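dumping this here so i dont lose it again. seq + smiles for zinc ion
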Amino acid sequence: MAHSTDPGRSRIPANQLDYRLAWDGRSTKLIVDLCYNANSKDSTVFIYGDLNGDIMGGQNEIFQILENIYVGAGDSLIVRPKERKLVILHKSGDPKRLHYEINGALLVEKGKERPDQLFRPVISEGSLYILGFDLFMNSADTTYNLCSVSWDKAPAGMPYFISTSPTAAPVDKQIVPASEKGNVLMLMGADLLIKKYEVYRIPYYAITTKSNTINITQKTLAPFFTKFFPSTRDFWQDYKSPYYFLSVQPLLKTAISTCTGYNIGIGFSMKYSGPFDFTKMEVVAHETSHSWIGEALQFYQEGMEYNWFHEGFDDYIAVYNLARTGMIDKAAYLKYVNEERLKPHYMSPVRTAPADSVQQYFWTSYEYENLLYRRGFIYAFYLDNQVRLATDGRENIRDFLLDLYKIKLRDKKKFISVDDFAEAAANCHLSKKQVADEVDSYLRKGKLLDFQQIKLIKEFHMHYENGLPVLTMSAGADLQKIYDWQN
Ligand SMILES: [Zn+2]
């Protein structure tokens, strides 16, 4: 597929950085030509790679993957690797050209197998994987508020996916707001398998790898598209979205069974190794549920102090829909609640740490990392039971969340507040003051729920073993029915 445009001939808007790509389908190198018009008389400065090296995991040495950097005739270039900076000194007229090549050879540092393959580009014969923050340059000049990207040269007929437009071909130019450029996922591969579904007429894309016939195939993911995503949309009564995608690609260098992922908002990109077990199913459910809790519905936070809602409630709703659709059975449900949530939480040395202390230890402590996921999940389970009891089973946590969503839309606010949270609870016949107090004592300060004093619906029973709460269910209880709703 050849398509070439002389950068000088097509006019580039002043606010746009224009990226043209080329790859031969065999080498580890993606060739990039960045064309733009200069805003300053003297120079233009670009920084490569994401500045937030901690969050992106594998970014610290990212500048080293840039090769063969040069600028258009007449101009000169200063390279400052330490600052990951390129300074182009202007001596000629527009348009400007910056050429660089991204070497996506797989380079895995021990202990960083997951971030190195998730956050760094991985390019090999017949396969290309890159995220926007490894592809595009950063400019401090806010005049450049758009970037455009298209391919000048791509291997003919090779399946292609770009998250900005799932049906685009490589020659189709994509225009991306500069603020969104990090969130672009680009995949090209002889092995790429892209299947389109429709969920309430919204296009959903399942992207897998053809050669992987053992672990995660299109068949493995099908229940998400036929059951889970429709259930989640019904849960939120939200049938509006341009599209959604789920990309699941194998990790090339990792022996153990594991997974990791990057949430792109309009989709989720996962990398994994080993069989599709409960953990991976739960990760996919949790991440693809974030379109609502954590995105559409979020608290304003300074650090991570409201992650009990963003992560814990999201997790509960993910499990809710897995249970409702029958994708997990009673045994798997109880195992998750007991082994992954109740037991580790009530045993954790940091179980009563205040929510606003989590961020400072998050990346260095597994217990802190998981604290608010567990705390929020357990409270969501408790709250779900209280709504059911207060309404004689007519309502459940879904009604509470839909109310919360309505309050947010009614007040036209970007963020929800504890007052909104308590108001939604009051709409479900709970005491507004009590719920506000519970947010403060259990979720913020970290007091433990004492299930010996708590009533649950008749299908659930909590007893204590060695001081830890253990959930069981009545023999005849139907999990799918419990997590269904009437309206
Ligand atoms: Zn999450």
